[in-house]
């Protein structure tokens, strides 16, 4: 699932979220120590993992060495802080981390982290010293921007040279964007200071989670430890709801800033909060004192604002358009249940011209396979469910008289296995959907047991490398049943089953120890193969945008192997092998003439070359040449986008259920140029040398809006393929009877 993939990189996510830094004063570096409940959590986690994991592995000296290597890499993935001598200093720990866990003494891994903080302090201090000089951009040298597979720096001189080049690259990016030396120094000094500020907010729970994930992921990539707070957030993601005020927050310059307000939420209904407002204090109920949250971690502020439904929270807010010396205002809100609708299934209808007729294609985008498990368990009739939402959308698309349906699962990392099975059941009558094999070798078949279909017409499934787990189960079942066409790039390749195991049951004095997300079984397709490692291969391939070498199951050094078991007993619902070559031929002919598609292919090849080279010049003349070439590419694309839209482009049909929906009209020259400018700004913005929080919030939101509105070339081509399928099925009854056995006269 998507959340699982994010959690699989938990250690790096924590560090990227709060910065890789330490306080500037060495004496001020706080020594973080393990808590008693953490040593308990580690011990109980080791007992569960070594006995009940699908790949049960003893916690011994061999595992200790793996933990040691992964822990150092988790702390310093790009090898910019530690030097080889630091690893040598703790070489004795290689075979002792298992003893540290079993013996309930985690001081050693915490000491390693404290050394990391000190080293980061050293590097940032050096980087800030370098800002007092001026780099020489006439030298012919380059910077390796991806160092994950590089060797550890051998000496202090080596690591200083790495940082000299890093600072030089930061400086050059700003220089090319037009900033003078004074502005560059101010920007970078503030950037590095922000690294330090964010790092001060790291605490023992963060450190423990990084270490425990080094252990869990050394067994298998999708096994993770979730601390108490991470566990709460995981639950929120699965049920797509929480109790709060309905505001999306972010940190900018030590302030907690409102980035988005959810429509219909307490924050939205009040009319008192605006995007850009700064929350500087939080109070509970009517009489509790205000807690100053200036400079707090974002998750700590969120924890203060969330609370039980119908309870009151008071926010001390500095208006976004007010100066820093303005007087804050107090706003009182009553918390309500907030639905995270942006992650729910959504539908659109696209019309494609086919001679004198129009083919109507319904597109359902599904970001994740969600379900409110607790609401379903207690019998709530309206519990949140991906399958229920998709079934409702399919009913609406039937009324809209669409000819074909495309399920867009791009970047859907999965979710609930139950939802994957039940969603498949919307498109098949009855039968097996996926097989599971336990650690003991016992195979169980998950079946769709509900007769009938929510949609008996043709379907397509759009996937990419980010489609994983439950997405792969659904796509594989559609493919094995011959029920539809799978389009896109090979999927992630995650064919393992995880379950959540609470460690709180082992706690003393009702302490929270967190949870394990542990692999307990492996998925197998109903044809006997598995999605593990190889993923789902699409019937019609689109350009591969992702880096398969560094993203996907095959990129993990300890992924489970591909294996085959006995097929399940199932009856294919259709046969698409005759229609796929015809659709592929039409697709290939069309994209050769599609300039937008060819631009995308060029971009993919350009990025692949950059990844392979893994070097960027630090010579100003060379970089200006590269920048000019990129700008020329952008102008060429802008000219193309400014032209009149192609008559063959699919047209978005307005949703009649949406209030004030606007009917799309062919763009005139002025409108086309405006759309082109917005799209180019969104996808081809000239590098300004800034990081996200260094730009204004308004600029960031505008860029995101433009990117969302940019032409989705791959989706439009998939819609074309679906329209081609409709045409073939309507003109060839033999094909129709094979592809759509449920309704051969359709």
TrEMBL record:
Molecular-function GO terms, alphabetical: endopeptidase activity; serine-type peptidase activity
A GO CC term assigned to this protein in UniProt: outer membrane-bounded periplasmic space
Keyword set, alphabetical order: Hydrolase, Protease, Serine protease, Signal
Domain of life the protein comes from: Bacteria
Signal peptide: 1-21
Domain PDZ: 235-306
Gene Ontology biological-process entries: proteolysis; signal transduction
Pfam families (alphabetical): DUF3340, PDZ, Peptidase_S41, TSP_NTD
Family under the similarity heading: Belongs to the peptidase S41A family.
Identification of the protein by name: Tail-specific protease
């Amino acid at each position: 699932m998507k959340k699982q993939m994010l959690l699989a990189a938990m250690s790096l996510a924590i560090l990227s979220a709060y910065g890789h830094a330490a306080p500037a004063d060495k004496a001020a570096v706080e020594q973080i120590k393990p808590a008693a409940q953490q040593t308990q959590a580690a011990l109980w986690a080791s007992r569960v993992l070594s006995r009940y994991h699908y790949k049960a592995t003893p916690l011994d000296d061999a595992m200790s060495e793996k933990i040691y290597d992964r822990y150092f890499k988790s702390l310093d993935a790009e090898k910019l802080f530690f030097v080889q001598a630091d690893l040598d200093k703790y070489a004795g720990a290689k075979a002792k981390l298992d003893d540290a866990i079993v013996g309930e003494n985690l001081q050693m891994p915490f000491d390693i982290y404290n050394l990391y903080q000190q080293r980061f302090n050293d590097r940032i201090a050096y980087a800030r010293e370098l800002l007092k000089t001026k780099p020489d951009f006439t030298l012919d040298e380059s910077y390796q921007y991806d160092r994950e597979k590089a060797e550890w720096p051998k000496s202090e001189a080596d690591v200083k040279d790495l940082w000299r080049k890093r600072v030089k690259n930061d400086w050059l990016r700003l220089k090319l964007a037009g900033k003078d030396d004074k502005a560059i120094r101010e920007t970078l000094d503030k950037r590095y200071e922000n690294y330090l500020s964010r790092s001060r907010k790291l605490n023992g729970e963060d450190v423990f989670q990084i270490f425990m994930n080094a252990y869990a992921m050394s067994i298998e990539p999708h096994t993770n430890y979730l601390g108490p707070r991470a566990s709460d957030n995981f639950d929120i993601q699965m049920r797509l709801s929480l109790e709060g005020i309905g505001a999306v927050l972010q940190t900018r310059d030590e302030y907690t800033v409102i980035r988005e307000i959810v429509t219909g939420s307490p924050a939205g209904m009040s009319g008192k909060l605006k995007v850009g407002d700064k929350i500087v204090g939080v109070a509970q109920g009517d009489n509790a004192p205000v807690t100053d949250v200036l400079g707090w971690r974002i998750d700590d502020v969120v924890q203060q604002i969330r609370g039980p439904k119908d309870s009151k929270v008071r926010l001390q807010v500095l208006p976004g358009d007010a100066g820093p010396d303005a007087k804050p205002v107090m706003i009182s809100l009553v918390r309500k249940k907030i639905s995270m609708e942006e992650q729910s299934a959504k539908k659109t209808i696209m019309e494609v011209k086919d001679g004198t007729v129009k083919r109507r294609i319904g597109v359902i985008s599904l970001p994740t396979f969600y379900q409110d498990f607790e609401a379903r368990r207690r019998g709530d009739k309206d519990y949140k469910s991906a399958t229920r939402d998709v079934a409702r959308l399919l009913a609406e698309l039937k009324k809209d008289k669409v000819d074909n349906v495309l399920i867009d699962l791009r970047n859907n990392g999965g979710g609930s296995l139950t939802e994957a099975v039940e969603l498949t059941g919307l498109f098949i009558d009855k039968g097996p959907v996926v097989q599971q094999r336990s650690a003991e070798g016992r195979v169980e078949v998950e079946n769709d047991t509900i007769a009938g279909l929510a949609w008996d017409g043709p379907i397509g499934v759009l996937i990419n490398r980010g489609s994983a787990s439950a997405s792969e189960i659904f796509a594989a079942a559609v493919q094995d049943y011959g029920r539809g066409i799978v389009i896109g790039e090979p999927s992630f390749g995650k064919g393992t089953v995880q379950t959540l195991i609470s460690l709180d049951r082992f706690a003393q004095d009702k302490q929270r120890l967190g949870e394990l997300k542990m692999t307990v079984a492996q998925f197998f397709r109903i044809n006997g193969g598995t999605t593990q490692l190889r993923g789902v291969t699409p019937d019609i391939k689109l350009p591969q945008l992702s880096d398969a070498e560094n993203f996907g199951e095959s990129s993990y050094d300890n992924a489970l192997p591909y294996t085959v078991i006995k097929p399940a007993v199932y009856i294919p619902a259709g046969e698409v092998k005759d229609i796929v070559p015809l659709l592929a031929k039409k697709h290939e002919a069309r994209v050769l003439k599609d300039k937008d598609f060819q631009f995308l292919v060029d971009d993919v090849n350009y990025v692949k070359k950059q990844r392979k080279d893994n070097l960027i010049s630090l010579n100003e003349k060379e970089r200006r040449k590269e920048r000019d070439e990129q700008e020329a590419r952008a102008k060429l694309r802008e000219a193309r986008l400014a032209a009149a839209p192609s008559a063959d482009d699919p047209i978005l049909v307005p949703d009649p259920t949406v209030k004030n929906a606007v009917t799309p009209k062919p763009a005139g020259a002025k409108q086309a140029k405006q759309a082109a400018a917005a799209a180019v700004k969104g996808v081809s913005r000239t590098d300004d040398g800034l990081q996200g929080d260094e730009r204004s919030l308004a600029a960031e939101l505008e860029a995101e809006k433009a990117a969302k509105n940019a032409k989705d070339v791959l989706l439009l081509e998939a819609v074309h393929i679906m329209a081609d399928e409709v045409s073939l099925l309507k003109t060839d009854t033999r094909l129709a009877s094979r592809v759509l056995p449920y309704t051969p006269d359709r």
